[in-house]
Amino acid sequence: MRYKIETERVDLFDVSIIITMAVRLEKKVSTEELVAAFDKAVRAHEVLNSRVVIEDSGEAYYADNDMPCSSFIRTQASLSELISENERGRFRIEEGEWIRGFDSPDGLVFMMHHLAGDGKSLLYFIETFLSALAGADPEFVPFRNLTLDNLPSGSRIPFFYEPIVRSWNRKWLKDKKIFGFEDMDRAYEKSWTGHKTKTEATRYEGKELEKLIRSAKDAGVTLTSYLIADMAKDIPGKTDVGLAANGRYDANRSMGNQATGISVEFKYDTNKSISENARTVHNLMQKKLSNDKYRYFVLQFMGRLDDTLKDALNLEHAGYFHSDISSYLAELLGYGSKARDISVTNLTRADIPLEYGEHRITEIIFIPPVVSYAKNVIGIVTAGDVMYVTRHIYE
What is the C-alpha separation between 201 and 379, in angstroms, rounded? Predict the structure, then answer.
């Protein structure tokens, strides 16, 4: 395999880019069985049998890797302890380390580098894993990602953005640097010295969850819109909201980063109810989500930036690298002091089975990474009649 890292290039040098899920099963399973199922699941997904190569030109690729380096172990560490320890320990993607799995007191914990896939990808990996645990032999799953060549035809950016991007790329040439994995190591060390993140998880079930869903339905909005309005009511002034969106235009179930995103700004009106404010949010978001030009804009736009300039934006945020053009763009594009107030990913009802032979999922917790361009990162997922809303922030 050899696939260029293009629209997902912004994830390559981000020092906080690990997606986490905790899955709780009804019955206890031996670690030996879990390890065997994990190894089968890893072998089944093409991207997990790859590694990242950065060429002398600065281009980066997924390339074949005969020895996957993902791992599964038993631990006594809690979910919060695992996140704190592992998000600051760089995944060796150049060696093919994509997922770290743990049999922990808080359930089965899976931590995945975003270049291996998005939140749905991790759900699909867990589906493969649990199918293998139930005795199935997983079928091979080819890698899929989004490139400038395969994005929907109606998503091309307006023509006047093209000269702007070309201008920025020309200005970058005088400071251009090709970064490598040693730079990544130093950026991690620089960024993570003296601070850590924390995760807050809120559990909804039964009548409490039914009440939330009914409130959103009565307001004529999605549950995501209703929750965003509730979060924004305590934020003074305008709230800048980012919403991750599914970029799978063909409903494939492959692993690969196929996420896109939109952003909206609105000011919570204290003279109106949460439902009325939720309708404002909902209308703003639906206008963009229903139009491919908006839905895929961030991928079309960022995909046209020089690859190494995208690396520099993250390294500026990490405090490791500085140049005039990358500093200017980092601030302009939200990698500096103007990061979004809220970034939300709602996987809605997990679209994987909850039962696999004698094994049954009772709960799933989803914790997105605290990416460079957001202050409060919110992850939402529902499994059965239980929904978790998590908030992941720097302490």
Answer: 9
Residue 393 backbone zone (phi > 0: left; psi -120 to 50: alpha; other: beta): beta
Q: How many CB atoms lie within 10 A of CB 196?
A: 12
Model confidence at 251, pLDDT cuts 50, 70, 90, reads confident
Nearest residue to 49 via CA among 36, 62, 33 = 62
**Residue 262's beta-bridge partner residues?**
243
Phi-psi category of residue 184: left, alpha or beta, with phi > 0 → left and psi -120 to 50 → alpha: alpha
Beta-strand relationship, 359-367 and 374-383:
unpaired
Crossing angle of helices 31-44 and 119-133, rounded to 10° = 120
pLDDT confidence bin for 337, thresholds 50/70/90:
confident
Angle at which helix 206-219 crosses helix 274-289, to 10 degrees, equals: 70
Does residue 274 register a pLDDT over 90?
Answer: yes
* Cα–Cα distance measured from residue 110 to residue 103, given in angstroms and rounded to the nearest whole number: 9
Query: Closest by alpha carbon to 375, among 235, 266, 227, 229?
Result: 235
* CA trace torsion 314, 317, 321, 324 (10° rounding): 100
- Kindly report, residue by residue over 69-128, the tens digit of the pLDDT: 999 999 999 999 999 999 999 999 999 999 999 999 999 999 999 999 999 999 999 999
Instruction: Answer yes or no: are the C-beta atoms of 282 and 221 closer than 8 Å.
Output: yes
Integer Cα distance of 7 and 12 in angstroms: 11
| Mean pLDDT, the chain, whole residue set | 95
Token pair, residue 250, equals: 């063909």
- Nearest 5°: the CA angle 240, 241, 243 is 155
